[in-house]
Amino acid sequence: MTRTYVPNIGPLNAKIACIGEGPGEKEERYKIPFHPDAPAGEMLTNV
Question: What InterPro entries would the database entry show (predicted)?
Answer without folding.
Answer: Uracil-DNA_glycosylase-like_sf
